[in-house]
Amino acid sequence: MSMQGVLPLSGFSGGEVLAYRPDHLLVAGMVERGSKVLDIGCGDGDLLQLLESRGIDGRGIELSREGVNHCVAKGLAVVQGDADTDLVDYPDDAFDYVILSQTLQATRRPKDVLENLLRIGRRAIVTFPNFGFWRLRLQLLVGGHMPRTDNLPFTWYDTPNIHFCTIKDFVQLCDEIGVKMERAVALDAYARPLRVAMPWWFWNMFGEQGVFLLSRAEKGR
After folding, report:
1. Does residue 165 contact residue 104 with C-beta atoms inside 8 Å?
2. How many other C-beta atoms lie within 10 A of the C-beta of residue 73?
3. What are phi and psi of 42, to 5 degrees?
4. What pLDDT was estimated at residue 23?
5. Sheet strand arrangement including 57-62
6. 62/68 Cα distance (integer angstroms)
7. What distance in Å separates the CA atoms of residue 104 and residue 127, rounded to the nearest whole number?
8. How far apart (Å, rounded) are the C-alpha atoms in residues 185 and 123?
9. How far, in Å, are 59, 80, 103, 161 from residue 41 at the CA level?
10. Kind of pairing, strands 121-129 and 209-216?
């Protein structure tokens, strides 16, 4: 699948940029107001708070008890759960959007998780660190060690990330399971969107993160 012609999100106010992570702002901008949303791997609940501030009905699942406690203390509707095992318990079309933010690479069965996202939600938003980013390639090539960045700070022996992928890998997976890409954004090292007119290999080399809005492909095509 070519990455050209996929439109990025933009148009956030300066106040919001100061208050929230750029990838969270992109995600929130992809969600329609009044929607029912499930945030999987919601961490401390920062994204859920942003969504609720925009009139969105947000729920969350978080693996760590500490994260759940932080969310509950903020008044957020979050339960402890595992994306690999607990999504099968949710009915079809239970949510308008299902969000998996910076969590795909930590799942044991990312393909199954992605398929479940689009079963229980009419749309899915997935963000992940791009392991094809040039700084990571350079560390492995020159340094000869597993790469580390601010976005991937863990050492190889204590990382929760077990399935690293590149933007190219993710696009190929979407093709394989018949997922429709409605929007896509590659963020550089400064969390700025790369130009949409660039070819996919440029995104794969210079995008530190990928942000994708997905929906089910039309049947019978």
Report:
1. yes
2. 10
3. -80, -5
4. 92
5. 77-80, 57-62, 36-40, 95-101, 121-129, 209-216, 179-187
6. 6
7. 8
8. 16
9. 11, 9, 6, 13
10. antiparallel
User: What is the 3-state composition of the chain as percent helix, strand, coil, each rounded to the nearest 5?
Assistant: 35, 20, 40
C-alpha closest to that of 211 among 124, 137, 90: 124
Q: Which residues of 137-167 are buried (b: 16+ CB within 10 A; e: fewer)?
A: eebeeeeeeebbeebbeeeeeeeebebbbbb
Q: For residue 104, which of 150, 10, 41, 16 has the smallest C-alpha distance?
A: 41
**Overall size of the chain counted in residues:** 221
* Residue 160, phi then psi, degrees to nearest 5: -80, -10
**Do the beta carbons of residue 96 and residue 34 sit within 8 Å?**
no
111-146 per-position pLDDT tens digit: 999 999 999 999 999 999 999 999 889 988 888 888
8 A C-beta contact, residue 186 and residue 206: yes
**Cα dihedral 133/124/58/93 (nearest 10):** -160
* Beta pairing partners, 127: 101, 211
176-200 confidence digits (pLDDT tens): 999 999 999 999 999 999 988 788 8
The arithmetic mean of pLDDT across residues 38-54, rounded, is 95
